[in-house]
Each structure stands twice: as structure tokens, then as C-alpha cells.
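Pasting as-is:
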Amino acid sequence: MQHRIHFTRREQHDTLQSHLLVPVSMNGRSGFLFSAEPTRSKTLVSARTIETLGINVDDSSSRVTISEKLVYPIVRLDSIGVATATVNAFDVVVLGKAGDTGRNSGEQ
């Protein structure tokens, strides 16, 4: 059985980077575009998106430490899906702070 996934290409101005975006559903809600980054070992989700999903990030959340100054919370999604494939109980790293609309608030 074949499934088709629609990718959207997004060019970064003034850089050599471009990203393939794929539509993703999280916790049963669709409409999220994720950057396909096959070299990443973790999935990053903006704090704004986590807030939109109604997930609370607090001091009891697990953390991933990159350096002394770079510590990010980890939250568990009930589900994440692409096309007809769904993974349940999926951990993601929360990037940024709730309400952040800056450059570092995108998904990867």
C-alpha cells in the first residue's frame, strides 16, 4: 500500500538553506507544518505550538541539556502523525517560551 505525503519547499532568504515542510497532526489536531530534518535525533516543537495544544510545561517536565545555558523541557504528545502513520506517546523538545513569535520558535 502506498501513501503520498505532500511536501512544501520553503527557501530561506540570504542563505543557502531550504527546508522541506510536511503537514503533521499532533494530539489529533492537524494543520501543523514541520521541517523535515532527517539528521536530527530529537523533534523540536515551538512553545507556542505546545501552548496551542493545551499542554502545560512546568518545572516538573523532563529536560534535555545541551550546555549550561541551553536547557529545554521535554513533553509527551498523546500522538503525532504524518499521512496515515501515527505514533502514540511521542516525546518532543519544547523550543522557546510560550507566546514567543521570534525566529527560534519554529518546528523541526
